[in-house]
Amino acid sequence: xxxxxxxxxxxxxxxxxxxxxxxxxxxxxxxxxxxxxxxxxxxxxxxxxxxxxxxxxxxxxxxxxxxxxxxxxxxxxxxxxxxxxxxxxxxxxxxxxxxxxxxxxxxxxxxxxxxxxxxxxxxxxxxxxxxxxxxxxxxxxxxxxxxxxxxxxxxxxxxxxxxxxxxxxxxxxxxxxxxxxxxxxxxxxxxxxxxxxxxxxxxxxxxxxxxxxxxxxxxxxxxxxxxxxxxxxxxxxxxxxxxxxxxxxxxxxxxxxxxxxxxxxxxxxxxxxxxxxxxxxxxxxxxxxxxxxxxxxxxxxxxxxxxxxxxxxxxxxxxxxxxxxxxxxxxxxxxxxxxxxxxxxxxxxxxxxxxxxxxxxxxxxxxxxxxxxxxxxxxxxxxxxxxxxxxxxxxxxxxxxxxxxxxxxxxxxxxxxxxxxxxxxxxxxxxxxxxxxxxxxxxxxxxxxxxxxxxxxxxxxxxxxxxxxxxxxxxxxxxxxxxxxxxxxxxxxxxxxxxxxxxxxxxxxxxxxxxxxxxxxxxxxxxxxxxxxxxxxxxxxxxxxxxxxxxxxxxxxxxxxxxxxxxxxxxxxxxxxxxxxxxxxxxxxxxxxxx
Length: 595
Ligand SMILES: Cc1ncc(C[n+]2csc(CCOP(=O)(O)OP(=O)(O)O)c2C)c(N)n1
Ligand SMILES: CC(=O)[C@@H](O)[C@H](O)COP(=O)(O)O
Ligand SMILES: [Mg+2]
Description:
Elements: H1 12-16, H2 23-41, H3 46-50, H4 52-61, E1 68-71, H5 78-86, H6 121-134, E2 142-147, H7 154-163, E3 170-176, H8 187-197, H9 206-209, E4 213-219, H10 223-234, E5 240-245, H11 253-257, H12 287-301, E6 305-309, H13 313-316, H14 319-324, E7 329-331, H15 336-348, E8 352-358, H16 359-362, H17 366-374, E9 381-385, H18 402-407, E10 413-415, H19 420-431, E11 438-441, E12 465-468, E13 473-477, H20 481-489, H21 494-498, E14 500-504, E15 507-509, H22 513-521, E16 525-533, H23 538-549, E17 555-560, H24 570-576, H25 581-593
Parallel strand pairs: 1-2, 2-3, 3-5, 4-5, 6-7, 6-8, 8-9, 9-11, 10-11, 13-14, 13-16, 16-17
Antiparallel strand pairs: 10-15, 12-14
Helix pairs in contact: 4-10, 6-7, 12-19, 15-17, 20-25
The structure holds thiamine diphosphate, 1-deoxy-D-xylulose-5-phosphate (DXP) and magnesium ion (MG).
């Protein structure tokens, strides 16, 4: 297929000059363009394919960028990027120094609001619409496009509640494909299914009941119908809600058939859609799978064990337990705040809840961790997946703040396993019952240990590990940073190596004070290495310890600097943060040369 239409569109004004009867051909070209690039460059696929017609219709009918368009999550905005001046650089999507996989204000005037975390679009677009009113701009339109899984989150409900009493010019478009990453859940999903199946049934319409004008449900792939509806709604004042039914993965048969797998499928054959299998034979397991398998195994020994995920059963591998023990493992939808307090409630009633949340999404539930869990000292077991630098999702998704924002919370134990065996053992230790809540943070992807299904061992709370002893410099790491340091050490000479100790702190809280006294008493310099922000994280904890005990030993903090780290592969990002093996080896050599 040639891109004869797509190649003429350098921004939406070019699109608006096309006659409407060419838009369906354009949709086919745009869909093919997305498939061809994502097939080799990877990224999110199904969501963008599902909104191709909507994307064209929005930019055709509305006067973007003057009219403001906000995409929720933003993983479906590839078509939007391609039509708004980024066609020729779309092959850099999610790569180091390339464009972001999400809308980003610094990237384009068409990206009105940065996203990545879900359910923000209605609030943001309502804010813009209210601002337009206050500024006397009456002809500007504001549109939020939100998915059926994202609209079920608390924040979206809060925004709808406000929208219903506002006279702002806001159009909320619900892109309802009945799936998030995994199938959508909950009573709202059931309600949406009912109104799709029986559009004329007499149950009160929730949206209308909130005083918001409702249209739909209509077929979101029917371009002429979409154009007609948007043209009509555009002329109306006040808040409106348009309910679209779409198919995630539309236009690529395999993506339509296996919507979970094709949310972000990795590499695939652009013609057939067939996945290009990764050769994983002999590779160590992913941290998430060790979590999923171990928690399921533990649940088999103890029927008080429960587990919760806010909308990430596949990503967290909790789907393993959900299959085996469907009565004790719950997907609560995109509802991180609820997930945390639900776990607190279960802990209060004597259950042993494992609450698995991606580190970055726990940011949503900070107050719940403090107010509902830690303050009441309820022994919830937080399993924080995707901690540290996650790679291509970039700044919105790196789990780099957790150590800093959790460290200041009383009662909370904080542990980072350096490998999957430690992860397995801490899950076991926590399942036996702790006196306090615990946060266990572990990274995206695979570790280095293949043999992981060993008999369980109890981990002593607050106890670090001495990995090697030297006499001049103490390296202190947490979590899988131990391996970056081990790789750096392999680059030292024998003589240099003798001067270096390596300590794995393991517990950021409570600190292993005995080990830390040894660190400060027996070395002339300390280097801390963490895959979290340096301000407030493990390095800061050691500085506080040193100050409290009057140690004057210089401490050098290595970690994520005070800037947002963008997207790229994890190795590239380690390099940027200077916590890769080369940077660490260089730092060590320079320091040793001065001693
Ligand atoms: C706060 C938050 N929690 C979880 C996620 C992970 N996540 C990304 S997309 C997605 C599903 C979104 O589903 P939906 O809104 O229906 O959009 P679709 O993918 O179907 O277009 C989830 C759970 C997120 N981005 N933000
Ligand atoms: C858009 C979004 O938030 C998710 O799709 C996220 O990209 C998943 O990340 P993982 O690939 O690490 O599960
Ligand atoms: Mg959806």
